[in-house]
Fold these 3 entries.
Entry 1:
Amino acid sequence: MKRSAKLAIPVLLAATTFAASVFEEGSAAERFRKLTSREIQNKIIGRMITDEAHWSQDFRRDGRLISSDMGKRSEGRWRISGDKLCLWNRFLDGECYEVWIAGDEVDLRAEGIESPATAYIRDSRP
């Protein structure tokens, strides 16, 4: 085999590996999909969203929002408007978010927020 052919194979292999890793990273972000109002109702309401360490938001079926942030409990309310989930509590005054999910991961995305924190959908606590 010629020397140039021997060098081309590792270079081609490295380029293919790099391209595959870039595609894989792009796929992770693309796996999230935006929920419709009906899907928000079915997948979020009656359940809890949490980062599993610092905070949680329990979306009660009666419209109450029970939040816990660093051990401090507060109550508010939620409403679905269009394809967005709107929240009222001591920190938020009707802020509305698109809900994006991938498996049990969930992002609440608002205009002007570039990188939302990923949280997880869990069953509500009794």
Entry 2:
Amino acid sequence: MNQLFGTDGIHGVANEYPITPEVALRIARAVARVLHAKDRGRHKVAIGKDTRACGYMLETTLTSGLVSEGARFLLTGPVPASKSAPSTNPAIWPIQ
């Protein structure tokens, strides 16, 4: 099985595996389930992105996955590249 996550996220071409809405939805749902199991929903997930078009597509999909599992989230909008891993668009972080 290929490794999905590298040292600084998931990389690829938008709309080609693994940078697809389907994968993003599954990841967001899994993040929400893990956080809920860990702390019963006390944490929020922050979603940041850069200004590339795929960031807007993935932000919407990640939000949908989190909401479908009852997770709380914060949309930061575009963030400087120094605030997220290089070439990662969008980035998600657990926060309190």
Entry 3:
Amino acid sequence: MTYLPRCLTTGLILLSAACAAADTPDEQGIEGQGQLIGTLTTPEYQVALYSGCAEGEVSCDQISAQLQQPGSEARELNGSTMHTLCADGMTPCRFLGYYLSDQDYAYRILENGQLHIKQCSDLGCEDIYNVRGSWHY
């Protein structure tokens, strides 16, 4: 499972599952990481999300993304889907969005288009960006 800074998991239950890689070479994402899920655009960022899991999988720990700011190179991120749990405490219930990370940054991309970025260190986490964008599929 992806390392999750404690400051990002409050109130969320994150699940991951082993997933089969996508087999369609024409629709491969970052270095063959899967099929394009969609692109989230905010005033300062564009995030293209890819899934390496088979279609129909409820949870996935093979999510990758390219985060682009105007005038800079794209950053490659890896992560998983986020869900609440059903009453049995084990089954993923409601899809919440995606959790991704790279080095000292953690990213939550919610189903409603909210992009939340935190910079984390040994001293804790600091919010640096929290804006709602629009999805393009």
